[in-house]
Amino acid sequence: MKQFSGIIAAILFGAALTQPAKANAIFDFSFSNITGNVPGTVTGYVVLPNSCSPCAAIDVVLTGFPAGLDNPYGGPPIDVTTTFTTVSHDTFTVNSGVVTAVEYAVSLPSAESSLVLGHINALQFSDTGYTGNQDGLVSFTAAVPEPNSVILMSTALLAVAWVARRRNARGRSPATRTNR
């Protein structure tokens, strides 16, 4: 049984030290209305492959938008990648973890609903109004990833400590054990 416990501890410790493949990069974005007829701010996030530039988005999600937009999709959140099916442009350039250039434009075939990011930023759900600006004023910030490796490492260290304590407790004679 001692060997089995040692093997389990070694596996957990090795798994904690193994560097997992880098996850996708997630960037939050926002832009405020300057030229549109619906005031407010549009927020969301874009998921990009971790090691490419320029590259296409894996996913784009709207997390907030002005209530004044005539929204037939429910939400937020709205998964733009699956809702807006016509892609005109899909290029993001990332340098040193910072989005430095964007050309992204998606819409529905009817073209009544669209999201544009880049030189012009706009969100429109119908032909009655949009929120946007034409000054390229869109802000991208890197989202903070969850520290899964720290959690895995802590779990492995706790498992090693537990196994060591059990071994230590079994190795002592009954006369030398202390009652706790």
What does this protein structure show overall?
The longest helix has 24 residues. The protein folds into 2 domains: 44 residues; 118 residues. It has 3 helices and 10 strands, in the order H-E-E-E-E-H-E-E-E-E-E-E-H. The protein is of the alpha+beta class. The two termini are 24 Å apart.
Secondary-structure map with pairings?
Blueprint: H1 2-17, E1 25-32, E2 41-48, E3 59-64, E4 78-79, H2 80-83, E5 86-95, E6 98-107, E7 114-117, E8 121-126, E9 129-133, E10 139-142, H3 148-171
Antiparallel strand pairs: 1-2, 1-10, 2-3, 3-4, 5-6, 6-7, 7-8, 8-9
Helix pairs in contact: 1-3
Tell me the span between the first and last alpha carbons.
24 Å
The total domain count is: 2
**Mean pLDDT, nearest integer?**
76
Number of strands: 10
Structural class label: alpha+beta
Rough shape? Answer: elongated
Radius of gyration: 26 Å
The level of helicity is: 10-25%
Q: Unreliable stretches, pLDDT < 50, 5 or more residues?
A: none
Strand order of the largest sheet: 4-3-2-1-10
The number of helical elements comes to: 3
